[in-house]
Amino acid sequence: MANVKLAIIYYSSTGTNYQLARWAEEAAKEAGAEVKVVKVPELAPKEAIESNPAWKAHAEATKDVPTATLADLEWADAIIFSVPTRFGNIPSQLKQFLDTTGGLWAQGKLANKVVSAMASAGNAHGGQEQTILQLYTTMYHWGAIVVAPGYTDPSIFAAGGNPYGTSVTVDQNGKIVENAEAAVKHQARRTVQVAQWVKNGMQQ
């Protein structure tokens, strides 16, 4: 039985979604998946990044994290996205990356990918759920199989109870408010498990 290949694709300016991605990576590897953690290309000008100390520090700390490519999407059996909300929608950095996937989509190479998503915002009603749902709209166009956590584990309630995907609130000090680590790890394990079912079924 071949291992599931999981791409964790994130965008993070000050580190929140990078942390979510790393928690997901840890759980997915424990579940037996082969995992890549990759970041989408940054579009913000250097001046904007350097004007924010936290953003500048995080950019420097993650400079060696590989940048996401279309090859990563083609390689993956499953994909977990993690992004901050931008006015209730996905960041332009991820949108730009998704907009380059037309060629793979046209060839049918994104169909049946197992996908799930996580999000963050600066307050409890800052658009986290809407951001995840906006992202899933693109996934439906791909013909992907969306794996939401629903309420399949008690950890989801401790993390705020978002059934669409783990989402967090970040305080003014950049700290995650919710107890979200267990929920992220459950979501990652669930994504890998469903991807394994799909992969096994397609090999019959």
Automatic annotation (TrEMBL):
GO terms of molecular function: FMN binding; NAD(P)H dehydrogenase (quinone) activity
Q: Name one GO cellular component term.
A: membrane
Top-level taxonomic group = Bacteria
Q: Which InterPro entries match?
A: Flavodoxin/NO_synth, Flavoprotein-like_sf, Flavoprotein_WrbA-like, FMN_Rdtase-like_dom
The signal peptide stretch is none
Where the record annotates domain Flavodoxin-like, the positions are 6-192
Recorded hits in Gene3D superfamilies, A to Z, give: 3.40.50.360
What family, per the record?
A: Belongs to the WrbA family.
The record ties this protein, via PANTHER family, to:
FLAVODOXIN-RELATED PROTEIN WRBA-RELATED (PTHR30546), FLAVOPROTEIN-LIKE PROTEIN YCP4-RELATED (PTHR30546:SF23)
Identification of the protein by name:
Flavodoxin-like domain-containing protein
The species is Saccharococcus caldoxylosilyticus
